[in-house]
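Help wanted!
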Amino acid sequence: MDNISLIAIDDERFNLLLLEEALKGEDIDVTTCSSADKGIELIKANDFDVLLLDVIMPGIDGFELRKIIRESRPHLPIIYLTAIVDTIDNSLIEKISQDKLTYYMRKPFVRDELVKMIRSTVAKKRSEEQSKELYSGIMEDLALAAEVQRLLIPDWVMLDDDVIVSSIYEPSQKISGDMFDMIRLSSGKYFFFIGDIAGHGVQAALYMSAIQSVLKMIIGMGNWDITTHEVLNRLNWVFCTELGQEKYMTCMVGIFDFAANELEFFNAGHPNLAVFNPLTGEVELLNPGNKGGIPVGWDKYYEYKKDEVINYKFSDDSIFFMTTDGTFEISNSNDQMLGFDKMIKLLDSLVHDQDSAVIPYRVREALPQMGYSVPIDDMTMITVKKVDREQEKKGFKYWMIHPLMLEVNKLCTECEKYIIDYTGEIELSVKIELILGEFLNNIVMHGLENSQQSRPGILVQIKITDKDVIIKILDKGKKWSFNTSPVPISEDLWNKDEQFATSGRGMTIIRSLASEISRNRYNDLNETVFKIRREPR
Amino acid sequence: MQLKSYDKNGITVVEIEGRLDASCASVLKAKFRELSANQNNFVMDLSNMDYIDSTGLGSIVSCLKVVSTANGDIKLACLKDKPRMIFEITRAYKIFDIFDDLNAAVESFIQ
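Answered by r_m:
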């Protein structure tokens, strides 16, 4: 252990001399000081382990001095040495104990007792400091682990040729035992997986990372005809033999065939898959005959059989919703959980007029408003919807970009071309390009400062009707509100100062071009909608 | 964006090619600072400029302010249809003299 550095402040030089002599021969470096002002300076300038202090000094008492010292050294242990005998109402002891790092020893002191007190006080302080350092190191490691883990799962929105997947992924303790993935197998065919390792925290997160890699290995292994029950058999075997018997995992494995509008999936003890069926206008739970199997990891000899696979024929506009149990186990202040049925009811109320990408965020946003604000487990919610490319010929198209200026430029050019090809209106296409360029570059340059994710994607949707073009932009940028009412442009715009050039003019231009702007924030997702009127023909 | 500059009858012509937007507006301003040390009258040849956004426009306005303080000017020439529309939509055309022909823009200084 390093020498103890001690400072003693006492107006009586005799007392300081006494202390110096008493502590000689110990591994204690003693600094003495007979003036309070000088003592304060020394304490500010040096990192002492402990302070010995007299209670009564001319001009200032030891308690006043403590208050001043605490401003610069809130964690410095203080031992009062005093000849004062406490009053009958214990006011001295009470004053001392108002500060939990203050101790007390009567004068005249017994040398060994004083040394013992100094040692134990400093040992306690050093051990607390070590714990704090250790804790902050662990928290840093966890933050890094969370970042790494986030890279293992898809971005909040994934747009591919045939599918759009939107997700919310919320670990209860920085890292999570939840996982999901969507892997393209061939044109129109996608493999999906959602899983939940029992428990949460570090262990669950390590399992999650291992399973995520194993799964990719199984899918990518050789030329085999991937079937959901066989993926589970292989996964279960690896889980039980390679990862030990400590944990288990509920999961759902499926294959979407968007060319045939068919879904094949296997449920291994996981919450049911829900689907919004546009033909009935209702949200249905896909568990016909209670088919499925036990969670992965329970029994290495268990066989996931083909006849437990569920097949479902869906429509172009069907919206699939998957979740882990953390979503509906979220509780209110009376410890009541939301429950699966209520979650489905909530979903049913939202799904009809909502974009599939927004739904997980609307559900998440609604939970605290309904009083459910105490998550007890990791939460994952996913929506999956077919992207019907035929819609592009009817004036409806999606784009997804990463928040980079280069990608913004590329998108603007593509959108401009799309508008010209569809409408033949050059001025309209220029307006759209301007709005998109100005708004998206604003997000890239100013909107992402506080984002936890390094590269959260931006989803852009364009819908052309006879009267308007509607642009919807979904981004995970910071909370940001702006005046959305239309404004005409004046020449004065160009007389504003430099500062305005980087953040003000673009929004004014947008407001002059759009006939309507609406802005919403659902959880941490911004939804901005611009309506641009087309010139009447 | 590509920038080129050359002298034409004592006037500096700056050619801007490609997109002048938030990602490269600062490059134009830096180039201008360099050029305006020796010259106050400029023509921007925009015949190859495909697009301009508010930050790009802001950078040209900023260059104009610099030369104006030294009694100089910037004239714009040969705007393509799309950037021309953007100048109109944003009313930026009101603060610049815009010419359809490069020579006319250069000669406007000499007259």
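OP: Thanks! One thing I noticed: The longest strand of chain B covers residues 41-52.
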